Amino acid sequence: MLPFRIFALIASLLLGGVASLASVREPTEGPPILFARDVAPQVKLRTEAYTVSPMVEVREFAYTFRVTSTYGNFQVRGVPQLETLLHELEVIRKLAEVSQSEAFASSLSSSLTSPVATTVGVAKRPVAAVTGLPGGVVRYLGGKLYQVRRGSDKALESYREYRSKDDKEEPEPTVEEPKGKKKKLVSSAGKLSRKHLGHDSAKRRWARQLGVDPYSKNEVLQEALGRIAWASSLGGFAGDFAVPSSEVFSYAGKARELVWDRPAHQLEREIVDTLKDLGLEKGLIHEFRDTPIYSLTEKMELCFGFKSLKDSGDIAFLVDFALRAENDEDAELMIRTLEVLVSYSERVARIATIGERRGMLYACSDRGYDIYPLAVDYLHWTPLVYEALLSEELMAEKREIWVSGQVSPIAKLQLREHGWLVFEQVDRYGKSSNAATAKR
């Protein structure tokens, strides 16, 4: 019989070997560093308005770009966000040039002499700012992103209070009191809103011409659009100029067209009517309409996504799921995830049901496949990934993962070994590098 110490040594070596084999089976990958020209070959990396750093890091499964410009330095995640930012910077530069022209200065000066224009500002609704939280994708894969049922109640109440104030009459302008009929005219004008003065419609027209979102969260862009809208609506400025654009920057789709064509109150009514038609209860509809997490444009995009999936189960669950977002990053993750699901349903197979497992959104096709949409730029094999995707909760005989970006060779190999069908580089129109094999 072997002495106990020798037996213990052999046992430890054997266990170490098993652990070593386990680590080989589930290797850990570090995030790569890539070249911007390879990640976004369609993007111009340097102009008069900005410079994009040539190196791109992958942080929390997202391409992270650094941009320097005259209007500030930015760190942006993902190619779509990069394209949007760069186009907005070009628009800001062009508007800055236009604002130096004599015609614009004269028009803006005329508009600002109006007591109405000086007192009616652009109402800024509060947006919940959550700090100190890990990235949305990290919490999503960890099953922690949507653990708490809508944690932005305080921000929502703040929004509603601000909204009720915003709906009241505008305060009368504080200017030197005129006399007679002029006094009455100015007092009445002070009660007019921006929409009566044509500011909002002018802003939407300029946004369409420039190919930007009138509800963009870029504050510098909002300020520039506001100035040219006032110059147009009250000062009569009628400048006409072109900004470099492309298919990427055009808002192809009904949601973007509606945002350009209709005022905000009509968009909100459209949102409410759409959700009513989908059978949602009043409280949930109003909560979605009033949430400060999503812009009006983003709410319209989500509504079109909900409509596309109306035959696939409980839309109220999807709306509830969307309302659990805590910040802009969560909101972007939800929008992109929904896009992947809609693309699958339109291009591959009908979605029969939609649900949640381990905090992750999933769908079941009418042919029995479990579909997991994952909106990431670069999926590589880390403990976070394999603990999520190889967990017992996600086990199924037929399961697929649809990744909006790229999957590393190691991650692809490991997923396939564990029974996953992997589809990558799925764009918003449902195309994939291997989508042909997905048709069933």
Chart the SSEs and their pairings.
Blueprint (H helix, E strand, L loop, with lengths): L3 H22 L7 E3 H4 L10 E3 L2 E5 L2 E8 L2 E6 L1 H20 L3 H12 L1 H5 L16 H6 L11 H14 L13 H10 L4 H4 L1 H12 L8 H15 L20 H8 L2 H14 L4 H9 L5 H13 L6 H8 L5 H20 L3 E7 L2 E6 L4 E5 L3 E2 L3 H7 L9 E5 L2 E2 L1 H9 L2 E4 L17
Parallel strand pairs: 8-10, 9-11, 10-12
Antiparallel strand pairs: 1-3, 2-4, 3-4, 4-5, 6-7, 7-8
Helix pairs in contact: 3-11, 4-11, 10-11, 12-15, 13-14, 13-15, 15-17
Number of strands: 12
Question: What general outline do the C-alpha atoms trace?
Answer: flat
Distance between the termini: 61 Å
Helix content: 40-55%
| Arithmetic mean pLDDT | 75
Query: Total helix count?
Result: 19
The radius of gyration is 26 Å
| Poorly predicted sequence stretches spanning 5 or more consecutive residues | 7-11, 15-24, 111-133, 148-178, 180-193, 246-252
Helical/strand content category:
alpha/beta
Strand content: 5-15%
Keywords summarizing the entry:
five-stranded mixed sheet, 12 strands, five-stranded antiparallel sheet, about 450 residues, alpha/beta
